[in-house]
Design a protein that fits this description.
253 residues, mainly alpha
């Protein structure tokens, strides 16, 4: 038991690891994951719209993209983007590995978010789009103002799950050899574990990841509950209608 505690919960190693993890690792993990999420959301919405198109030539490229990036292991995509592109002379970010890290995680995220957005949009009743078009809105305006916001609300828990996956997959960018000041949580912990042969730094990094993922899950679940209940308190049972009283219709609600 003593050996186990010294290996995973060594106080000296934890005290040495946490300052660097919190000041450098946490900052860069948030930077990589945050930029990748923004990129993934924008591209994911575009891909979802393409997947919903009635034109086969529009749907096909989006379907190929989604199937390829969902089918490849994340570590392969990170390696191909972060190591393969510079080796092939394609260097949109020069020699800075941070840009390639964001691009790789964002491309993976977009493929999953596209399917999430597609399912959410398809769950919106078709009458919503028809009603918006009857008011004179163009197709794109109706989708942007009426349909897409409702579709996003339908899939908030799934979106939160994908954002959490993006945060965790940011650990894979250690393959790209981030420089000093660019290291994320896992990179720092893995370096320290290799130098000391002690896993306490990895445990500390795991605690930092939980500091990010658990509050995110809690906040999105609260938001989802609030949206579903319209902000009403749910601790009181709904009043039972009197016998013979007709239930209100959807339009009356």
């Amino acid at each position: 038991m003593h050996l186990f505690l010294q290996t995973f919960f060594n106080p000296d190693e934890l005290l040495k690891a946490f300052p660097v993890l919190l000041t450098e690792g946490l900052r860069n993990t948030l930077l990589i994951a945050g930029l990748a999420i923004v990129f993934g959301v924008v591209l994911g919405v575009l891909l979802a719209m393409m997947l919903l198109s009635h034109r086969r030539w529009v749907r096909l490229p989006a379907r190929i993209y989604v199937d390829v990036f969902r089918g490849l292991p994340a570590i392969v995509t990170v390696s191909l983007v972060g190591l393969g592109l510079p080796s092939a002379g394609i260097r949109p970010f020069g020699r800075d590995p941070l840009g390639y890290a964001v691009l790789a995680i964002g491309l993976i995220s977009a493929a999953y978010l596209a399917e999430i957005f597609r399912s959410g949009i398809q769950a919106v009743p078709a009458g919503q789009l028809s009603a918006a078009r009857s008011l004179g809105m163009s197709y794109l305006t109706a989708m942007r103002v009426i349909v897409v916001p409702q579709g996003v609300r339908n899939v908030l828990p799934a979106l939160a799950g994908q954002f959490i996956i993006d945060i965790k997959e940011s650990a894979l960018v250690y393959l790209l050899g981030l420089g000093l000041g660019q290291r994320e949580l896992y990179f720092i912990a893995q370096e320290r574990q290799a130098a000391t042969y002690n896993s306490s730094a990895l445990v500390a990094a795991g605690a930092c990841y939980l500091m990010l993922t658990i509050p995110l899950t809690f906040l999105v679940n609260r938001l989802d509950l609030r949206l579903r209940t319209g902000g009403r308190k749910t601790n009181r049972p709904a009043a039972t209608p009197a016998v013979g009283t007709p239930a209100p219709s959807v339009m009356e609600v």
